[in-house]
Amino acid sequence: MLFITIKKKIVSLASINSHNQIVISGDASAVYKASLKCKKLGAKYTFKLNVNIPAHSILMKPISQKLRKILKTITINPPKIPIINNVDVKSENTSKNIKNALIRQIYSTVMWKDIIEFIKTKKKYVMLEIGPNKILTNLNKKDKNLISFSTNNFKNFLIAFKKINKGKNEYQ
User: Fold this and answer.
1) What angle do CA 62, 37, 18 make, to 5 degrees?
2) 42/74 Cα distance (integer angstroms)
3) C-alpha distance from residue 86 to each of 30, 130, 144, 164 (Å)
4) pTM
5) Beta strand 3-6 with 9-18: parallel, antiparallel or unpaired?
6) For 3-124, CATH number?
7) How many of the other CB atoms lie within 10 Å of CB of 68?
8) pLDDT in tens, 3-44
């Protein structure tokens, strides 16, 4: 977890998506100033993500305790498919470890680039992006060895699962 302060405001390294795409998060004004500095130092593009929270930043640590309380009430069965922890970049298979990873991911850096490399070593090349956007799916399109589906709406969700079920043997 890496973070810096700019005039007592925090900017965290939120996600390392690829060798040339890094996301920062934190206090909005500090993130804006850090983005300007990155542009001056040679960043090709900077843009503001449409999120209202400082996701994957140390500012989210207090919220993680609320999630901890919620997760105590939930049963997580051992997964049938690998659950990759995006903080430590490893497969988790116990309820305790999955919950711990979920809690830490709220305020820790997402290691997406390393996750992709880890997945490739396991010979698992089909991924579903569950969320409102297609950012990670689009990143994966650059790699011919990966098959990624976005489930950013119900229609895409159904298409992704139909494709996975149809090609089940091919993808495993």
Assistant:
1) 70
2) 46
3) 25, 14, 22, 22
4) 0.78
5) antiparallel
6) 3.40.366.10
7) 14
8) 565 567 899 999 998 888 899 999 999 999 999 999 999 998
Return the structure tokens found at 50: 């449409």
Are the C-beta atoms of residues 128 and 149 closer than 8 Å to each other? yes
Contact between residue 55 and residue 44 where contact means Cβ atoms under 8 Å apart: no
Query: Is the Cβ–Cβ distance between 26 and 12 less than 8 Å?
Result: yes
Longest CA span, the chain? 55
Listing DSSP states for 84-108 in one string gives EETTTTEEE-SHHHHHHHHHHHTTS
Ramachandran category for residue 20: left, alpha or beta (phi over 0 → left; psi -120 to 50 → alpha): alpha
> Which residues lie below 8 Å from residue 99, measured CB to CB, with a gap of 6+?
68, 71, 74, 76
pLDDT one-digit tens code per residue, 7-18? 678 999 999 988
pLDDT value for 172? 45
Long-range contact list for 125-131, CB < 8 A, 24+ apart? 125/171, 126/164, 126/167, 126/171, 128/160, 128/164
Tokens of 108: 């820790």
Q: How far apart are CA 90 and CA 122, in angstroms?
A: 11
What does the domain layout of the chain look like in residue ranges? 3-124, 125-172
